[in-house]
Design brief:
With 267 residues, the chain is an alpha/beta fold. It is built from 11 helices and 8 strands. Bound molecules: 3-methyl-2-oxobutanoic acid.
Protein backbone atom coordinates (compact mmCIF):
# COMPACT_ATOMS: atom_id res chain seq x y z
CA UNK A 1 0.00 0.00 0.00
CA UNK A 2 1.16 3.52 -0.85
CA UNK A 3 2.06 5.79 2.06
CA UNK A 4 0.20 9.08 2.48
CA UNK A 5 2.33 12.16 3.13
CA UNK A 6 2.08 13.57 6.66
CA UNK A 7 2.75 16.89 8.35
CA UNK A 8 6.30 15.66 8.93
CA UNK A 9 6.90 15.31 5.18
CA UNK A 10 5.59 18.82 4.57
CA UNK A 11 7.79 20.29 7.33
CA UNK A 12 10.80 18.33 6.08
CA UNK A 13 10.32 19.77 2.60
CA UNK A 14 10.75 23.32 3.96
CA UNK A 15 13.78 22.27 6.00
CA UNK A 16 15.40 20.69 2.91
CA UNK A 17 14.43 23.51 0.55
CA UNK A 18 12.19 21.29 -1.56
CA UNK A 19 9.29 23.28 -3.03
CA UNK A 20 5.79 22.12 -2.11
CA UNK A 21 3.28 21.71 -4.97
CA UNK A 22 -0.37 22.01 -3.96
CA UNK A 23 -3.58 22.12 -6.01
CA UNK A 24 -7.26 22.25 -5.22
CA UNK A 25 -9.51 19.30 -6.01
CA UNK A 26 -13.21 18.84 -5.53
CA UNK A 27 -13.90 15.33 -6.83
CA UNK A 28 -12.53 11.79 -7.16
CA UNK A 29 -11.27 11.80 -10.79
CA UNK A 30 -9.25 14.99 -10.50
CA UNK A 31 -7.88 13.93 -7.11
CA UNK A 32 -6.76 10.61 -8.59
CA UNK A 33 -5.04 12.20 -11.58
CA UNK A 34 -3.11 14.77 -9.54
CA UNK A 35 -2.16 12.15 -6.97
CA UNK A 36 -0.76 9.93 -9.75
CA UNK A 37 1.31 12.87 -11.03
CA UNK A 38 2.85 13.31 -7.57
CA UNK A 39 1.14 16.39 -6.16
CA UNK A 40 2.32 16.95 -2.56
CA UNK A 41 -0.76 18.53 -1.02
CA UNK A 42 -4.38 18.68 -2.14
CA UNK A 43 -6.80 21.31 -0.88
CA UNK A 44 -10.54 20.87 -0.93
CA UNK A 45 -11.01 24.62 -1.04
CA UNK A 46 -14.20 26.52 -0.38
CA UNK A 47 -13.45 27.80 -3.89
CA UNK A 48 -15.68 24.80 -4.69
CA UNK A 49 -18.48 27.39 -4.34
CA UNK A 50 -17.51 29.68 -7.23
CA UNK A 51 -15.63 27.03 -9.25
CA UNK A 52 -18.00 24.04 -9.11
CA UNK A 53 -21.34 25.28 -7.75
CA UNK A 54 -21.38 28.57 -9.68
CA UNK A 55 -21.78 30.81 -6.59
CA UNK A 56 -20.50 34.39 -6.86
CA UNK A 57 -18.08 33.86 -3.95
CA UNK A 58 -17.12 31.39 -1.24
CA UNK A 59 -19.46 32.67 1.49
CA UNK A 60 -22.49 30.40 0.81
CA UNK A 61 -20.47 27.16 1.01
CA UNK A 62 -21.72 24.89 3.81
CA UNK A 63 -20.11 22.24 5.99
CA UNK A 64 -22.21 19.56 4.29
CA UNK A 65 -20.88 20.60 0.87
CA UNK A 66 -17.31 20.61 2.15
CA UNK A 67 -17.65 17.16 3.68
CA UNK A 68 -19.23 15.71 0.52
CA UNK A 69 -16.40 17.00 -1.71
CA UNK A 70 -13.74 16.08 0.82
CA UNK A 71 -14.88 12.47 1.00
CA UNK A 72 -14.80 12.19 -2.80
CA UNK A 73 -11.30 13.67 -2.99
CA UNK A 74 -10.04 11.57 -0.11
CA UNK A 75 -11.05 8.38 -1.96
CA UNK A 76 -8.94 9.48 -4.94
CA UNK A 77 -5.68 10.02 -3.03
CA UNK A 78 -2.95 7.47 -2.45
CA UNK A 79 0.06 9.57 -1.46
CA UNK A 80 -0.88 13.26 -1.25
CA UNK A 81 -1.62 15.13 1.98
CA UNK A 82 -5.26 16.29 2.18
CA UNK A 83 -6.33 19.66 3.60
CA UNK A 84 -9.95 20.82 3.86
CA UNK A 85 -11.10 24.41 4.07
CA UNK A 86 -13.29 25.45 6.97
CA UNK A 87 -16.15 27.32 5.30
CA UNK A 88 -17.45 30.73 6.39
CA UNK A 89 -19.30 30.60 9.73
CA UNK A 90 -17.93 27.16 10.64
CA UNK A 91 -15.21 28.58 12.96
CA UNK A 92 -16.09 32.21 13.66
CA UNK A 93 -19.06 31.75 16.03
CA UNK A 94 -17.37 30.08 18.99
CA UNK A 95 -14.58 27.66 19.79
CA UNK A 96 -16.96 24.77 20.47
CA UNK A 97 -18.44 24.99 16.96
CA UNK A 98 -14.97 25.40 15.48
CA UNK A 99 -13.80 22.20 17.21
CA UNK A 100 -16.89 20.29 16.13
CA UNK A 101 -16.67 21.42 12.50
CA UNK A 102 -12.91 20.85 12.18
CA UNK A 103 -13.41 17.41 13.72
CA UNK A 104 -16.12 16.59 11.18
CA UNK A 105 -13.81 17.45 8.27
CA UNK A 106 -11.26 15.02 9.68
CA UNK A 107 -13.66 12.30 10.82
CA UNK A 108 -16.30 12.39 8.07
CA UNK A 109 -14.35 14.07 5.26
CA UNK A 110 -11.13 12.13 5.61
CA UNK A 111 -8.99 15.31 5.70
CA UNK A 112 -5.58 15.25 7.43
CA UNK A 113 -5.66 18.98 8.23
CA UNK A 114 -7.99 21.96 8.07
CA UNK A 115 -7.35 25.46 6.71
CA UNK A 116 -8.92 28.63 8.03
CA UNK A 117 -8.63 32.29 7.11
CA UNK A 118 -7.33 35.03 9.37
CA UNK A 119 -4.36 36.11 11.48
CA UNK A 120 -4.23 37.45 15.04
CA UNK A 121 -8.04 37.46 15.07
CA UNK A 122 -8.25 33.66 14.71
CA UNK A 123 -5.21 32.69 16.80
CA UNK A 124 -7.49 31.31 19.54
CA UNK A 125 -9.22 29.06 17.00
CA UNK A 126 -5.91 27.80 15.59
CA UNK A 127 -4.72 27.06 19.15
CA UNK A 128 -7.86 25.21 20.17
CA UNK A 129 -7.74 22.98 17.07
CA UNK A 130 -4.01 22.36 17.41
CA UNK A 131 -4.65 21.42 21.06
CA UNK A 132 -7.03 18.69 19.92
CA UNK A 133 -4.33 17.40 17.55
CA UNK A 134 -5.91 18.67 14.35
CA UNK A 135 -3.17 20.03 12.07
CA UNK A 136 -4.03 23.57 10.96
CA UNK A 137 -3.02 25.54 7.88
CA UNK A 138 -3.40 29.31 8.26
CA UNK A 139 -4.40 31.63 5.41
CA UNK A 140 -3.64 35.37 5.37
CA UNK A 141 -3.51 38.25 2.88
CA UNK A 142 -6.29 38.24 0.31
CA UNK A 143 -8.75 36.08 2.24
CA UNK A 144 -11.79 35.42 0.02
CA UNK A 145 -14.18 35.04 2.98
CA UNK A 146 -13.45 38.73 3.77
CA UNK A 147 -14.55 39.91 0.33
CA UNK A 148 -17.07 42.40 1.74
CA UNK A 149 -14.50 43.99 4.07
CA UNK A 150 -11.83 44.16 1.35
CA UNK A 151 -14.29 45.57 -1.21
CA UNK A 152 -13.29 42.94 -3.80
CA UNK A 153 -10.39 40.61 -4.50
CA UNK A 154 -7.57 43.13 -4.00
CA UNK A 155 -3.87 42.59 -3.33
CA UNK A 156 -3.23 43.11 0.40
CA UNK A 157 -0.18 44.45 2.24
CA UNK A 158 0.93 47.10 -0.24
CA UNK A 159 1.06 49.82 2.41
CA UNK A 160 3.69 49.59 5.17
CA UNK A 161 1.15 49.43 7.98
CA UNK A 162 -0.79 46.60 6.27
CA UNK A 163 2.47 44.77 5.57
CA UNK A 164 3.51 45.00 9.24
CA UNK A 165 0.08 43.67 10.28
CA UNK A 166 0.45 40.70 7.90
CA UNK A 167 3.83 39.87 9.41
CA UNK A 168 2.22 39.96 12.87
CA UNK A 169 -0.66 37.80 11.60
CA UNK A 170 1.74 35.21 10.17
CA UNK A 171 3.65 35.01 13.47
CA UNK A 172 0.42 34.78 15.48
CA UNK A 173 -0.83 31.87 13.36
CA UNK A 174 2.51 30.06 13.67
CA UNK A 175 2.74 30.69 17.42
CA UNK A 176 -0.82 29.38 17.86
CA UNK A 177 0.28 26.04 16.43
CA UNK A 178 -0.40 26.10 12.66
CA UNK A 179 1.96 23.79 10.74
CA UNK A 180 1.79 25.72 7.44
CA UNK A 181 0.30 28.95 6.11
CA UNK A 182 -1.15 30.09 2.79
CA UNK A 183 -0.13 33.60 1.68
CA UNK A 184 -2.61 34.86 -0.88
CA UNK A 185 -2.50 38.01 -3.00
CA UNK A 186 0.37 39.87 -1.34
CA UNK A 187 3.48 41.52 -2.85
CA UNK A 188 6.27 39.03 -3.63
CA UNK A 189 8.80 40.92 -1.46
CA UNK A 190 6.55 40.78 1.60
CA UNK A 191 5.87 37.07 1.02
CA UNK A 192 9.65 36.54 0.94
CA UNK A 193 10.05 38.40 4.26
CA UNK A 194 7.28 36.35 5.90
CA UNK A 195 8.75 33.11 4.55
CA UNK A 196 12.17 33.99 5.98
CA UNK A 197 10.64 34.98 9.34
CA UNK A 198 8.67 31.76 9.85
CA UNK A 199 9.72 28.21 10.71
CA UNK A 200 6.56 26.74 9.14
CA UNK A 201 6.19 26.41 5.35
CA UNK A 202 4.48 29.22 3.43
CA UNK A 203 2.38 28.28 0.43
CA UNK A 204 1.78 31.12 -1.98
CA UNK A 205 -1.02 31.99 -4.36
CA UNK A 206 -0.35 35.28 -6.06
CA UNK A 207 2.52 35.81 -3.62
CA UNK A 208 5.64 35.30 -5.77
CA UNK A 209 8.30 32.66 -6.00
CA UNK A 210 9.97 33.04 -2.59
CA UNK A 211 7.27 31.03 -0.81
CA UNK A 212 8.09 27.46 0.24
CA UNK A 213 5.33 26.15 -2.03
CA UNK A 214 2.59 27.18 -4.42
CA UNK A 215 -1.14 26.46 -4.62
CA UNK A 216 -3.55 27.14 -7.48
CA UNK A 217 -7.10 26.18 -8.34
CA UNK A 218 -7.10 23.14 -10.63
CA UNK A 219 -9.79 24.57 -12.94
CA UNK A 220 -7.65 27.70 -13.43
CA UNK A 221 -4.46 25.89 -14.46
CA UNK A 222 -6.41 23.69 -16.89
CA UNK A 223 -8.27 26.60 -18.51
CA UNK A 224 -11.64 25.36 -17.29
CA UNK A 225 -12.69 28.66 -15.72
CA UNK A 226 -13.58 30.78 -18.69
CA UNK A 227 -15.24 33.48 -16.54
CA UNK A 228 -12.08 35.09 -15.16
CA UNK A 229 -8.33 34.65 -15.10
CA UNK A 230 -6.37 36.48 -12.38
CA UNK A 231 -2.80 37.68 -13.13
CA UNK A 232 -1.27 35.06 -10.80
CA UNK A 233 -2.77 32.11 -12.70
CA UNK A 234 -0.73 30.28 -15.32
CA UNK A 235 -2.65 28.07 -17.72
CA UNK A 236 -0.93 24.76 -18.38
CA UNK A 237 -3.64 23.30 -20.63
CA UNK A 238 -6.72 24.30 -22.59
CA UNK A 239 -9.04 21.62 -21.25
CA UNK A 240 -12.18 23.66 -22.03
CA UNK A 241 -11.51 23.37 -25.79
CA UNK A 242 -10.88 19.65 -25.50
CA UNK A 243 -14.08 19.09 -23.53
CA UNK A 244 -16.19 21.21 -25.87
CA UNK A 245 -14.73 19.34 -28.86
CA UNK A 246 -15.76 16.00 -27.30
CA UNK A 247 -19.26 17.24 -26.48
CA UNK A 248 -19.71 18.69 -29.97
CA UNK A 249 -18.57 15.42 -31.55
CA UNK A 250 -21.18 13.52 -29.54
CA UNK A 251 -24.00 15.97 -30.38
CA UNK A 252 -23.13 15.91 -34.11
CA UNK A 253 -23.08 12.10 -34.26
CA UNK A 254 -26.39 11.78 -32.37
CA UNK A 255 -28.04 14.32 -34.68
CA UNK A 256 -26.67 12.54 -37.77
CA UNK A 257 -27.74 9.09 -36.52
CA UNK A 258 -24.11 7.93 -36.57
CA UNK A 259 -23.98 7.12 -32.84
CA UNK A 260 -24.61 4.48 -31.61
CA UNK A 261 -23.03 2.27 -34.28
CA UNK A 262 -23.32 -1.52 -34.30
CA UNK A 263 -20.23 -1.78 -32.05
CA UNK A 264 -22.10 0.12 -29.33
CA UNK A 265 -25.37 -1.81 -29.75
CA UNK A 266 -26.59 -5.22 -28.53
CA UNK A 267 -27.99 -7.83 -30.92
O1 LIG B 1 -10.47 27.86 -1.52
C1 LIG B 1 -9.37 27.83 -2.12
O2 LIG B 1 -9.28 27.27 -3.20
C2 LIG B 1 -8.23 28.48 -1.48
C3 LIG B 1 -6.98 28.83 -2.23
C4 LIG B 1 -5.81 29.01 -1.36
C5 LIG B 1 -6.66 28.18 -3.48
O3 LIG B 1 -8.31 28.76 -0.33
Amino acid sequence: MQKRKTVLDIQRMKAEGEKIAMLTAYDYPFARLMDMEGIDMVLVGDSVGPVVAGYDHTLPVTMEEMIYHCRAVSRGLGQAFLVADMPFLSYQVDLREARLNAGRLIKEGGAQAVKLEGGENVADVVRTLADMDIPVVGHIGLTPQSIHRMGGYKVQGKQDQQARQLLRDARAVQDAGAFAIVLEGIPAGLAGQITAALDIPTIGIGAGVACDGQVLVIHDILGLCEKYSPKFVKRYADAASLIRQGIKGYIDEVKQGVFPGPEHSFS
